[in-house]
Amino acid sequence: MAKPRRPARRLARALTLLGVLALGGALRFAPLPASRDAGHWVFTDGDSYYHLRRVEQTIQARGRVPMFDPELSYPEGQKLQWHGGYDLLVAGAVVVACGTTPTRPCLESVAILSTPLLGLAALLCLFALGRAIGGPRLGLLGAALFAVYPFAAGSAALGHVDHHVLEPLFVATWLALLVRGRPLAAGLVAGLSLACFPTAPWPAAVTLAALLGLRVVEGAASRVRPLPFALALLAVAWPVVHTGAFAETYEPSAVSRLHLVAFACAAAAALWVELVLRAVRLPR
Asked: Exposure string (b/e) for 174-208, b if CB count within 10 Å is 16 or more?
């Protein structure tokens, strides 16, 4: 009688996942052009500089993220059109690694290194989502594609400090939780994402609409549970919605300046609907 091959398969899958992580890490930890100059970090875009400014101000204010900058649109000043969750997250990492009075080199190094690390975390979330939907093979395939996807690798590259790195991480996490039959936890993650990046309402709304649509179509026979997802989403998002920064972000004058990812979210709506359709039909 042949011996079970499960341990060998598990080892092969684990090694494959490590290989995918290594590939993703190589792309994300490779410094961007001009990101190092004479041993010092040089940011490659203005957004990274401003995120670093907010991180520094948040630490100086003992965790209070500034939502108004008198030096923007001088002399009137301007409400910030970025939500504060990402900067608070990076500020926390800086305080843990460098203390409450970090030196400039330590602050910059931690902030910059956090980006590719979050990118690898997002890659693991994509693997978890694929595995929950179709098993380990689909998880490995999804992770491998995400590892080399230009937008995913570019937004998590060494030399960037930007909230875009959190977008795929949050979306993959709440979809994976839905697949696992945990709508309450999925809603909490979706609501939390609104505190971290302005484009979060797009994928959250598409996911909720798909769940509600399935509930209506399938009626009493449906195993979909959109209510816990919606309640958790609104409970976490409610304080964010009532901040000035959130309102400023979605003023008509600012909508035209939303990043391309917002439109990518809308274009990918069919994919999210399909994922939710498959998720709710899996045996629990």
From this structure: bbbbbbbbbbebbbbbbbbbbbbbbbbbbbbebbb
Sequence-distant (≥ 6) Cβ neighbours of residue 154 within 8 angstroms: 160
What would the pLDDT profile of 27-42 be if each residue is shown by its tens digit? 999 877 667 666 677 7
Which phi and psi angles does 41 have, rounded to 5°?
-75, 135
pLDDT in tens, 228-258: 999 999 888 877 666 555 555 555 444 444 5
Closest-CA residue to 262 (of 164, 191, 146): 164
Please report where in the chains the tokens 């399909």 appear, as a residue: 274
Tokens linked to 177: 């939780």
13 CA to centre of own chain: 25
Cβ atoms of 144 and 131 closer than 8 Å: no
